[in-house]
Amino acid sequence: MIPIQAAEGRFVSHLFWNIDRNLWASLDPQQRSGAQRRFSTCLEEYRSSDNHQAFCYAIWGLKADLGVLLVDPDLNHLNETEHLLAASFPAGALEPAYSFASMSESSEYVSQDNDYDRSLRAKGLDPDSEEYQAKMGEFRTRMQAYINERLYPQLPAHRVMCFYPMNKARGEVQNWYLLDFETRKNYMASHSITGRKYGGDVKQLVTGSVGLDDWEWGVTLFADDPFFFKKIVYEMRYDEASARFGEFGEFLIGINLEPEELWKRLQL
Amino acid sequence: MIPIQAAEGRFVSHLFWNIDRNLWASLDPQQRSGAQRRFSTCLEEYRSSDNHQAFCYAIWGLKADLGVLLVDPDLNHLNETEHLLAASFPAGALEPAYSFASMSESSEYVSQDNDYDRSLRAKGLDPDSEEYQAKMGEFRTRMQAYINERLYPQLPAHRVMCFYPMNKARGEVQNWYLLDFETRKNYMASHSITGRKYGGDVKQLVTGSVGLDDWEWGVTLFADDPFFFKKIVYEMRYDEASARFGEFGEFLIGINLEPEELWKRLQL
Amino acid sequence: MIPIQAAEGRFVSHLFWNIDRNLWASLDPQQRSGAQRRFSTCLEEYRSSDNHQAFCYAIWGLKADLGVLLVDPDLNHLNETEHLLAASFPAGALEPAYSFASMSESSEYVSQDNDYDRSLRAKGLDPDSEEYQAKMGEFRTRMQAYINERLYPQLPAHRVMCFYPMNKARGEVQNWYLLDFETRKNYMASHSITGRKYGGDVKQLVTGSVGLDDWEWGVTLFADDPFFFKKIVYEMRYDEASARFGEFGEFLIGINLEPEELWKRLQL
Amino acid sequence: MIPIQAAEGRFVSHLFWNIDRNLWASLDPQQRSGAQRRFSTCLEEYRSSDNHQAFCYAIWGLKADLGVLLVDPDLNHLNETEHLLAASFPAGALEPAYSFASMSESSEYVSQDNDYDRSLRAKGLDPDSEEYQAKMGEFRTRMQAYINERLYPQLPAHRVMCFYPMNKARGEVQNWYLLDFETRKNYMASHSITGRKYGGDVKQLVTGSVGLDDWEWGVTLFADDPFFFKKIVYEMRYDEASARFGEFGEFLIGINLEPEELWKRLQL
Amino acid sequence: MIPIQAAEGRFVSHLFWNIDRNLWASLDPQQRSGAQRRFSTCLEEYRSSDNHQAFCYAIWGLKADLGVLLVDPDLNHLNETEHLLAASFPAGALEPAYSFASMSESSEYVSQDNDYDRSLRAKGLDPDSEEYQAKMGEFRTRMQAYINERLYPQLPAHRVMCFYPMNKARGEVQNWYLLDFETRKNYMASHSITGRKYGGDVKQLVTGSVGLDDWEWGVTLFADDPFFFKKIVYEMRYDEASARFGEFGEFLIGINLEPEELWKRLQL
User: Fold this and answer.
1) Of A32, C10, C168, D47, which residue has the fewest beta carbons closer than 10 angstroms?
2) pLDDT of C77-126, one tens digit each?
């Protein structure tokens, strides 16, 4: 089927399911191992291309049993994989609990040439000097790499994942969308300073879902110790960008397990 | 049965279902192909008249498996088709996930003769001149065509569809329904400029649902690349008409597939 | 059983069900026709008294399959009928989708003798004149008939029905219940002018549900063309009574069908 | 089991269930009558002590089939009875629809000695006079009886019951919990005047659920004509205590029936 | 499996389930006792380490049948235990009703050295004096013990448990996260005075869930008489920290029972 490709960014699916335990219990051992093998194979094949990333999670608490995170350059292939994964289990064994549709994206608030030009001039550099040119060249390379990393992310295989969707408020008093660009950029700059403080402990993927799902962005955090999810999200809540304008949906915590470990964890 | 016809506009149903996978798995191959054939035939017959339009979609994520969009001049025939489509599958195989009832409508904010008269006079044209008369005649023809296109739309067969319902806010501070007509018209004018910028990439159908369903309007977007759903809806969020007054419901993304492709996609 | 009668007004039930299609499919033809006959008979017997009114509806979209509207002077008889109708189908075949409990009521804002007295005097009539007395007598007869019609309504058999529940806002700024009586009466007066404009196309039944169900009023509209539901509710949204204070719940559109037509429509 | 007793007040459960009709239909007549007999016996035994009160209700509309109201001095015994009642029916036949956990309580706003002292002095009585002492003594007896009636209520066997939960608002402008005691007492005083006006037609039980269930209070009204539920709740909505600060949950109307009548009503 | 340990605090799961009564009824006596024995054994083993605490509860009303509270230093072990407990019952017999994921944490508002220094100086103590040094040493020991107790709590085996989640408001007027630290500390100080008043009757565990679940904190109260849940939560509602900024979720009341008592209570 002809791919549905995006002018920019990857398609991202967060999928959360419960196991229908009655149905699973009614299967014989061969049906069970067949299901697990098909799921694993489907995931392996998916991962065999650099452009397709996939992780499996056991979910903390009773919100869902398992979660899958898929990143794909083709919406047709992604949607097909959603159904292939579900169909690798016997009909009805995977019951939808929650899902989120979004796309990786750059940020409109990344530093621009003119931001850096201002900072170089402030340091006394002459725009015609070689040093200015060299530094500006490095800046452009750095920003391009950063934008590429946001548009075409390589997700880290940390032990725990935290997902939540969010909006920027359009309240009667606090309305993000009535602020001018510079004000928003300043809010986001101090917000990202908090993020960078935790850079060693928490990696984050911010994907856009305006026009695609019920919230405007999806935030996916990766860490080895979930304590840092609590710490970073709590600290960020005091950033004005969050304090005044952040609206948050459901939070789901997943423990990153390969399929075989996942089946054991879920007592399948 | 005597048709239920509208003084103005078409009846539009957005229907979203999940497949009961257990039930489907219990069918034998003949029952399955029979169901699929009945569904296809029902859709084909529906489409055989110019006035009846229908599309099928595979839905991104776990909100629903499939969606159908129907446009009909007769509410009796539309309601009958809703039940015929569902009944073409074995009893209970299609489980309702979401639906939306609305009618195509013109906009009260379209340019009027007096708007165009003002603009022609501003260009120095004499209302009694032939040029004025000719231009005004063209304007009327153009507007009539535009209104007709809104009331009796011919939907484009783009690869992806985005549906969401919306309201205009009646908040304690921001209340659309307390604004005078000119203010609302100006808001909508700048809003539609954003829409026209994306005219080449995104087609839109706005249908009215005040008094018919839980939201005031349904917005259906059509594109070949869903990236543009994200881009246009995000950009529009900064239009004051949206920023101050837009309230949005559930977003559903459908991949436009003919029935045979749809069954394959859904692993039926 | 001793009737539960109201000091004033009728008891009104809006009942919406889905059909359990699996269960229905498992019945043999005799069981099906038996169920349909019992339902029809139950409805016929109900309607055989002037004081009991009942309508059946096929619902637009996937919110419900069918709806029934019952008007009864006795809550015991009404509640019994709710269960008799459901039990006329095989156990579990009718699955509750939504219901609304309310009572017909007059309006506290109807014109009073002193309103009319003011208007007669303004026309220069002497309260002791015969003309004044005659006109005042007619006014009282007219108002009594109006109040009777509201308390003991005879519902029209139009082709389509629209139901929605509503509240008057008790917001922090806009609070209907803190307004004085005259202000509320003026709001309602201009609201009812909009209603009368559509009198030829739309009939309405407003029932009170404060203390009986989750919303304060239920609004039931009757028309032959649902376009007018959209038109009247949209126009009314600009009346200040709605714009400032109206809060609306779920909207359900029903196509008025006699039981035999209904079963055909629902593919039973 | 050692009772869990309260320092003050009774434990109150409002329980609402639906009947699983399929399951019920699959029972043979003996199983059905056995279930009904066990339920009746359980209720009878419960009622055999003065301190345990219980009522059964058929519910108006489709929100639930039946309701039970239990008043108990021991939370262990109450919780046990909840399970005994459910278990008197075959497993799964009673499906939970809604419940509410609360405790009877006095009101902090009841008149105190110093309120009455002020009123006696205002009438010119000398605190050392015999008349003052006699009246103050009567007042204390009366208040003690009132408080006892609230803490250890004897519920009336009226024909219809209305239940709804409520909160006092903690809005950004209207915040009950930031008002001083006197202001709240005045609000409640004028609110209770409305209540007393309906004393002949409506009895009320207000139970506290702060820290026990999702709302702060449960209100249970008892009457022979549900018209008065509508009338009193509507009139109270204009009391400032409600207009500014009242937030209301789900309303459920029950028709008071003894078990045998209830089974007939529910077509069991 | 390599433990997932936290830099600070314990992982806490609140788990609430309903029993599928149909499924349970279909088991033979041996299957039932086997399930109960497996559950008990799982719990016993869990409790056999000092670092793992677990309680079972019967839930008041129809929100859930039973609840389990688990405290664990290892998220992997906790998540495994969640599944082991559920799997100790036959597949599907325990239906998820609600769960909450959080971590024990200290409070940022605990008294610091400089708070105590100020208070010692105010009493005229010289920082270089032996008395000052001794008192400061005691203070540090006391605070360290308090922080340890919060981070690594030993839960009391009281008869009743109350759980509810909460947020601090980020409203358009009242926004906790825009207050400076001192203001928040003062709010919390007067709030904790209310808490200490009830110290003899109610123990509390406050766990952090920002970034882990849908609310910011979970509050778990322990008492022998649930009257005190009502009393303390009601009184606290007037503390400005709650009145202005407290937002509360679902309240669940559990009666602390050992597994064997629990099965009896639930009529298993």
Assistant:
1) D47
2) 999 999 999 999 999 999 999 999 999 999 999 999 999 999 999 999 99
Could you give the residue numbers annotated as active site of D?
164
For B229, nearest residue in chain A (alpha carbons): A211
Question: CB distance A175–B244 less than 8 Å?
Answer: yes
| Mutate: best of A59, A62, A262, partner E, most E CBs <10 A | A62
- Please answer whether residues D246 and D237 qualify as being in contact, where contact means their C-beta atoms are separated by less than 8 angstroms: yes
Q: What is the DSSP string of B92-119?
A: TSEEEEEEEEEEE---TTS--HHHHHHH
Whole-number pLDDT of residue D68: 98
Residues C61 and E226: their CA atoms lie apart, in Å, by 47
Please tell me the distance in Å from A31's CA to the nearest CA on chain E: 16
Q: How confident is the model over E61-81, as a mean pLDDT?
A: 98
CB E118 within 8 A of CB E182: no
Contacts of C251 in chain B (CB under 8 A): 209, 211-214
Whether residue B31 is predicted with pLDDT greater than 90 in this model: the reply is yes
| Type and span of the H or E element at C25 | helix C21-25
Mean pLDDT within D57-61? 98
Rounded CA-CA distance C189/C187 in Å is 6
**What sections of chain E are H helices per DSSP?**
21-25, 29-47, 75-88, 113-122, 130-151, 181-197, 227-236, 240-245, 259-265
Structure tokens at C234: 């949209």
Residue of D nearest to C14 (CA): D61
* Burial class of residue E202, CB neighbours in 10 A (0-12, 13-18, 19+): buried
The dihedral sign for the CA sequence A137, A143, A146, A152: negative
CA distance A247 to C22: 41
> Is residue C164 annotated as part of the catalytic site, yes or no?
yes
Query: Which of D102, D168, D206, D213 to mutate to probe the E interface, most E CBs <10 Å?
Result: D213
3-state secondary structure of D206: strand
- Burial group, residue D148, by CB count within 10 angstroms (0-12, 13-18, 19+): exposed
DSSP B54-92: EEEEEESSSS-SEEEEEEESBHHHHHHHHHHHHHHSPTT
Q: Is this prediction's pTM over 0.95?
A: yes
Among candidates A79, A90, A211 on the partner chain, residue whose Cβ is nearest the Cβ of B234? A211
Q: How confident is the model at residue C191 (pLDDT cuts 50, 70, 90)?
A: confident
Chain A residues in contact with B242 (beta carbon < 8 A): 177
The residue annotated as part of the active site, out of C46, C57, C164, C198, is: C164
Token readout for E254 is 């559990």
**Contact flag B255-A79 (C-beta cutoff 8 Å):** yes
3-state secondary structure chain A: CCCCECCCCCEEEEEEEEECHHHHHCCCHHHHHHHHHHHHHHHHHHHCCCCCEEEEEEECCCCCCEEEEEEECEHHHHHHHHHHHHHHCCCCCEEEEEEEEEEECCCCCCCCHHHHHHHHHHCCCCCCCHHHHHHHHHHHHHHHHHHHHHHCCCCCCCCEEEEEEEEECECCCCEHHHCCHHHHHHHHHHHHHHHHHCCCCCEEEEEECCCCCCCCEEEEEEECCCHHHHHHHHHHCCCHHHHHHEEECCCEEEEECCHHHHHHHCCC
**Cβ contact D61–C100 (<8 Å):** yes
Instruction: Determine which helix (DSSP H) or strand (DSSP E) holds C79, and give its type and residue range.
Output: helix C75-88
Local confidence band at B180 (pLDDT 50, 70, 90 cut-offs): very high
- What are E85-126's pLDDT values in tens digits? 999 999 999 999 999 999 999 999 999 999 999 999 999 999
DSSP assignment letter at B175: B
Task: Output the average pLDDT for chain E.
Answer: 96
- Secondary structure of residue D216 in the 3-state scheme: coil
Neighbours of chain B (3+ CB pairs under 8 A): A, C
